[in-house]
Backbone:
């Protein structure tokens, strides 16, 4: 696997979700999954300090419906179980576009989740569904008010 693909695989691991439904071209995916669960598994007030936003386009042969199921599995079986997980939403756009936003308690938690994702069996299937050349990911740190 090339360094670029390894980097993109690591990047996608912590993709997350505040579905930007206010955008005209973004619609909630599979009821815009939103989970606000602290890493202990109990509902909590938002403790997010880091927001990760990933956007990408699905490969032409991957349907929204099929990817939504895969995305949900990644969330439930991996991302939501990671230390420092706060919330995650996914949204589909037009022409195969997809976005995921994840809120993390800390940058260290986000980094650890990204690293652990590469070791999961579902990572290859998830990454194989994406046009990696279209993938963009940004992290933002919340500003205390």
Residues:
């Amino acid at each position: 696997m090339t360094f670029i693909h390894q980097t993109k695989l690591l990047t996608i691991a912590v993709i997350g979700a505040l579905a930007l439904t206010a955008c005209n071209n973004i619609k909630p995916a599979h009821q815009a999954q939103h989970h606000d669960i602290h890493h202990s598994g109990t509902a909590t007030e938002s403790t997010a300090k880091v927001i990760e936003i990933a956007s990408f386009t699905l490969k032409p042969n991957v349907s929204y419906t099929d990817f939504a199921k895969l995305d949900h599995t990644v969330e439930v079986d991996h991302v939501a179980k990671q230390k420092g997980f706060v919330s995650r939403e996914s949204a589909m756009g037009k022409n195969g576009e997809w976005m995921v936003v994840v809120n993390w308690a800390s940058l260290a938690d986000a980094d650890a989740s990204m690293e652990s994702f590469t070791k999961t069996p579902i990572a290859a299937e998830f990454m194989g569904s994406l046009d990696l050349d279209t993938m963009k990911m940004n992290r933002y740190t919340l500003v205390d008010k």
About this structure: The radius of gyration is 14 Å. The beta strands are 27-28, 35-36, 50-58, 85-92, 97-104, 130-141.
